[in-house]
Write a structure and sequence with these properties.
This protein is α/β, with parallel strands linked by helices and 461 residues long. 31% of the residues lie in helices and 25% in strands. The radius of gyration is 24 Å and the shape is globular. The chain starts with 5 loop residues before the first strand and ends with a strand.
Length: 461
């Protein structure tokens, strides 16, 4: 019988890696885990957690403005970027400590080093040169921002990683990209007083979201003062005295302090030893897995962003728990990637679950679309003109709600609860017989009784 140093060895200390290591260790397995940077991964260290803290910080400029409509007199306000960075760093350090504590309490062995595969059962720890063996290995190394190295002057640009550690807040910034990272940071920097421009190659921002929400957010951002350049890309970036000169494909020339590239993310698989171990990757470098997160090598699994299935923290955690059920509880469990609720923490927010109108129209012969656009109560006294949009996509044949989409304050919170309803297969009749909570914005979801319009065979009627 072959003897191994560990029952399980995990490469990567992000959400999926830590969860799989901690739970496996708590079940009595001998577990090792290695991380070359900091425990907590992209989400906790340089992703959604610090980003959400930045979102909160950036909203205060509007809160101060809105207060006057409610009788408050707010004196002169100033913002200190360095204080925000210090407070953010303190919180991230606290969270990383909790991740380490959880692993330690479960008696997992923690290695602060880069780890690479030597073969299907052997891992090399680069800091010491030590090699260890494991019966089962999990690769959970996540992803990183695409640096777009083909762009002349890319070395003068930052990514979302560096945005969390800027020494000074820039006076102006150009953000390249139209996905949720680009859109969120555009709103963050604008809210903190930075002159902000967003440039995106597509016809409209947020390509995978419902068209009504995309247009609604675009209009809201421009009304705030964010400049959005669609159907254009950066062709070069040049460092000059006092900042950067940016030239675009459409012959625009911009002078800005900072350029941020938010042009997608790349799986962290380079020089990981995957080829030596026999682990297959696709043309984008992502680890190829089956329905149970197993790679082309039977004892090696891969979880989270490194597989490029759905780049969301809760998905990585879910995949980790399915891995535990499959390998250590004799209960083969496939991760369920269908109907994932998600949010864009733009300003206003987007919350969504299920099919967009465009996707649903291709799948179902007839749809009922329920749509409401209104000014939220909070804006009535503040004088702000921002609008909310709520939209339900219903399959006419069985009345099942197949998509729910919100643009407005607290849309992310609403999307989590809508995710339960849509996942459970609730029908529009279930929504209709649910009592409204008044006065709330969310009550619109259960008081839209008549379709705004129908779509038959892809055409609006």
């Amino acid at each position: 019988m072959t003897s191994f140093d560990f029952d399980l060895f995990v490469i990567g200390g992000g959400s999926g890696g830590v969860r799989s290591a901690r739970v496996a260790a708590s079940l009595g397995n001998k577990v090792g885990i290695a991380e070359e940077y900091r425990y907590g991964g992209t989400c906790v260290i340089r992703g959604c957690v610090p980003k959400k803290l930045f979102v909160y910080a950036s909203q205060y400029s509007e809160h101060f403005e809105d207060a006057a409509g409610y009788g408050w007199t707010v004196g002169e306000s100033t913002f200190d970027w360095k204080k925000l960075i210090a407070a953010k760093d303190k919180e991230i350090a606290r969270l990383e400590g909790l991740y380490r504590k959880g692993l330690d309490n479960a008696k997992a062995e923690i290695f602060d080093t880069r780890a690479e595969l030597v073969d299907a059962h052997t891992v090399k720890l680069l800091k010491t040169g030590q090699t260890v063996t494991a019966e089962t290995i999990v690769v959970a190394t996540g992803g990183r921002p695409n640096l777009h190295t083909a762009l002349p002057g890319h070395e003068f640009c930052i990514s979302s990683n560096e945005a969390f550690h800027l020494e000074e807040l820039p006076k102006s910034i150009l953000i390249a990209g139209g996905g949720y990272i680009a859109v969120e940071f555009a709103n963050i920097f604008h809210g903190l007083g930075v002159e902000t421009t967003l440039i995106y190659r597509g016809a409209e921002i947020l390509s995978r979201f419902d068209q009504d929400l995309r247009k609604g957010l675009h209009e809201a951002m421009e009304e705030k003062g964010i400049r959005i350049l669609c159907q254009d890309i950066i062709s070069s970036v040049e460092k000059v005295d006092g900042g950067l000169t940016v030239r675009t494909k459409n012959d625009k020339v911009l002078r800005v302090d900072t350029v941020m590239l938010a042009l997608g993310r790349t799986p962290n698989t380079e020089n990981l030893g995957l080829e030596a171990a026999g682990v297959a990757t696709n043309e984008h470098g992502a680890v190829i897995v089956d329905a149970y997160s197993r790679t082309s090598v039977p004892n090696i699994y891969a979880l989270g962003d490194v597989t490029d299935r759905a780049q969301l923290t809760p998905v990585a955690i879910h995949e980790a728990m399915c891995f535990i059920e499959t390998v250590y509880k004799n209960n083969p469990t496939r991760p369920d990637h269908d109907l994932i609720p998600t949010a864009v923490f733009s300003q206003p927010e987007i919350g969504t679950v299920g099919l967009t109108e465009e996707e649903a129209a291709k799948r179902y012969p007839e749809l009922e679309v329920y749509r409401a656009q209104f000014r939220p109560m909070k804006a009535t006294l503040s004088g702000r003109s921002e609008k909310m949009i709520m939209k339900l996509i219903v399959n006419a044949a069985d009345r099942k709600v197949v998509g729910a989409h919100i643009l407005g304050h607290d849309a992310g919170e609403m999307a989590q609860l809508l995710g339960i309803s849509v996942k459970a297969g609730c029908t529009k009749d279930d929504f209709d017989r649910t009592m409204a909570v008044h006065p709330t914005a969310a009550e619109e979801l259960v008081t839209m009784y008549s379709p705004s319009y129908r779509i038959r065979n892809g055409e609006r009627v």
